[in-house]
Design a protein that fits this description.
This protein is α/β, with parallel strands linked by helices. The protein contains 12 helices and 19 strands.
């Protein structure tokens, strides 16, 4: 299925109830389980990833298919390795291409027994759960923060806790800080000094908790605000002081002419009409915002150079390649070292008047980052548009309030 998008000028004030953060929700679900909590989590995300996690934790099965839920795969691999029994965890075809060897090696070093069922280093996995023994462990700091968070969350429940040394540069640091802050809410205090994180053996305490709304989802509304000078957008449910590193989106878009005002009524976005000639940014801490910023900069005619993108190649798709391919269809010629950077120097090519079909590569953020381009490109088509349910199930209904309408094309 495809959605053909059209845009109607909308100068009105609009109000949006943002979805709950799946990053926070999935961590809270695991910590709830580890604390044997009787309490339900408030404002839990209804995203595919969170529903996959919830289904496994409430299941009586020993075999789990978590689809494309990367966070769920990493967190549950660690969780199941300490639950006595034999477990099998698998996922979508793309999930079977996403590496997990670093996490498996670390868990096996702690006494876990995890085997690869198909390809070495990748899901599906067979896990023989047992008691784990902690102590000292080393990992490269430039791997997915989900590997590290998975280890940190089970650390208090294993013998001797964990003293984790991260070698080299540490990427996605805010996600690790989020994990440790939520662990503290459940009664476990950690210590992070330099490249060493120490989590003592201990016991989580059950707690009534509420998940924040999602700053990553807010990024698409910042993009819409940047492209619609006369629109005022009120985003509900965001916290000014947030656990989410992606809350830095407000600072990025301030440079692109979007002003953020926090009030009791919500988070108000308005367009100041200013923009730079060039935007440079290191996304080492906020890689999930790169697609939104790349599309926005191109549409605004702002040259850019992004760095710190090394994790984009192992996300739902190779996001660097995907951005280059799809923005080229709009005439924007991007460059990359194909490792950790992406840039646009203003080079454009002519395009015809036929509909532009944006491939989403089964990646929710490709669909949501490109949809606002309907403001500039009539007859924009989004392929496989329902990939958005991975994190923002009501996305299409919500952006209709901004004048972006959809028509199903089979």
């Amino acid at each position: 299925m495809q959605y053909k998008l059209s845009h109607q000028t909308n100068n009105s004030k609009i109000q949006v109830q943002l979805p709950s953060s799946k990053s926070i929700s999935n961590r809270l679900l695991l910590l709830n389980a580890l604390s044997y909590s009787p309490f339900e989590i408030k404002n839990l995300s209804d995203s595919d990833d969170t529903q996959a996690m919830l289904k496994v934790l409430n299941s009586n099965s020993t075999t789990f298919d978590i689809g494309a839920a990367g966070t769920t795969m990493r967190f549950l691999t660690a969780f199941l390795s300490k639950i006595v029994g034999e477990w099998v965890i698998t996922g979508s075809s793309r999930m079977k291409e996403r590496p997990i060897k670093t996490l498996v090696d670390a868990l096996n070093q702690l006494g876990a027994k995890i085997e690869y069922i198909e390809k070495e280093g990748y899901p599906p996995l067979r896990i023989f759960g047992s008691n784990l023994e902690g102590g000292d462990l080393e990992l490269p700091g430039n791997v997915s923060s989900q590997y590290i968070s998975a280890l940190l969350m089970i650390a208090p429940t294993i013998e001797n806790g964990l003293r984790l040394t991260l070698r080299g540069d540490i990427i996605s640091r805010p996600y690790l800080e989020m994990t440790l802050a939520l662990m503290k809410d459940f009664g476990v205090t950690s210590h992070w000094k330099g490249n060493v994180i120490t989590v003592p053996e201990g016991q989580y305490q059950p707690k009534v908790v509420t998940a924040e709304s999602d700053w990553s989802a807010a990024s698409y509304w910042y993009e819409i605000a940047a492209l619609n000078p006369d629109m005022e957008i009120n985003l509900k449910g965001l916290k000014k002081i947030s656990l989410q590193g992606d809350s830095n989106v407000k600072l990025m878009f301030e440079k692109l002419g979007v002003k953020t005002k926090f009030s009791q009524k919500g988070t108000i976005l308005t367009n100041t009409g200013t923009k730079p000639s060039k935007f440079n940014y290191n996304f080492i801490n906020e890689p999930d915002l790169a697609q939104t910023l790349a599309v926005t900069c191109c549409l605004l005619g702002v040259r850019f150079h992004f760095t710190g993108l090394q994790t984009l190649k192992i996300k739902e798709t190779d996001r660097i390649t995907a951005l280059i391919n799809e923005l080229k269809k709009m005439g924007y010629i991007l460059n990359s070292n194909n490792v950790d950077d992406l840039s646009w120097d203003g080079e454009k090519t002519a395009i015809d008047d036929e509909a532009i079909v944006i491939n989403t590569y089964k990646d929710h953020r490709m669909a949501m980052a490109f949809a606002p381009a309907a403001v500039k490109f009539p007859n924009l088509v989004i392929d496989d548009p329902m990939v958005i349910t991975k994190s923002y199930p009501n996305y299409w209904e919500d952006i209709a309030m901004a004048g972006i309408d959809k028509e199903s094309v089979e």
